[in-house]
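**User:** You know discrete backbone vocabularies at least as well as I do. Would you mind producing a protein record, from residues through to fold? Write it directly below this note and I will take it from there.

**Assistant:**
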Amino acid sequence: MTKASDVFKLKNANNVEVTFIGRGGQITGITVPDKDGNMDDVVIGYQSVEEALAGDGYFGALCGRFSNRIVKGQFSLDGVDYQLECNNTPNHLHGGSDGFNNRVWDVTPYEESRFAQAYKLTLVSPDGDQGYPGEVKVEVIYGLTDENEMVIEYVAETSKATIINLTSHAYFNLKGAGKGTVEDHQLELNASKYTPLSAELGTVTGEIAEVKGTPMDFVDTKAIGETVNTDDEQVKMVNGIDHNFVIDGYDGMLRLAARLSDEETGRCMEVFTDQPGIQIYTGGHFDSSETGKLGNPIEKWAGVAMETQIFPDSPNQDHFPNAVLKPGEVYKHTCVYKFSIQ
């Protein structure tokens, strides 16, 4: 039986290495080369497993049943009203205070020819768990290819109609964790629209807006710092970026959603997904009060999370993508983080 502190490693022919633990399937490290062949861990987090278990439980973790926010923790399904825990006042966030990030997943080796190495993570969420209807069985594949792709594949089924939205919450810094902020990282998003936030609601309003003419425009590559250092209301509300972007051309097929790069190291990370949205979060809540890797404080904008998913509050917005899963249906979600040198 997997324990919270159990450590698992994936390694490929290029010495790229992914490390994760049993609790939350938390990705605690991804080590990749720079343009000179130097290896660095590009995932923000802690120096030890003990610190990871005691620290921020979202770092690198699998989030669910519903990642991101649901307004006032309320939704209706098949004529029944549900009230979830409001653990991110005034809203429900990432499945509640005992969400999937806090569970110990059962981890077993998994073999498939496309992967250099892989593991299967499984979890059963009982009917009524955190206020959600239906027993949900979840399988997640963590696979590493020899093309330096970290592949995350999610599958879920339910015994009753429910809502679901799973994601991975790793923060990336391509300079290397503990080596400054991501302000000079270049970001490009395949997203000409986004879902603006309301200060009153604490999350999305239901509006889908054009990014053109706003600091949220990353259609053409630009430095993250150009946005997080502005006085724009959307930016000030969350001390940076914490927004859902609408992926252009969404059709349920795998497509490029984002490209992140660092000129100094030459590292590049592309994000591919079959989901309709990607949440970009620059860690505005980091305040240097915690010690991270290399013994350095985890400072504001120390990393950027790139979470592929359905839109926030989708259960309450009819024009947002469907987040309902019914018996006999299968929820599927693929996210690929592909590392390269530019």
The chain has a mean pLDDT of 98. The helical segments are 49-54, 225-228, 233-238. The first strand starts at residue 7 and ends at 11. The domain at 7-341 is CATH 2.70.98.10 (Beta-galactosidase; Chain A, domain 5).
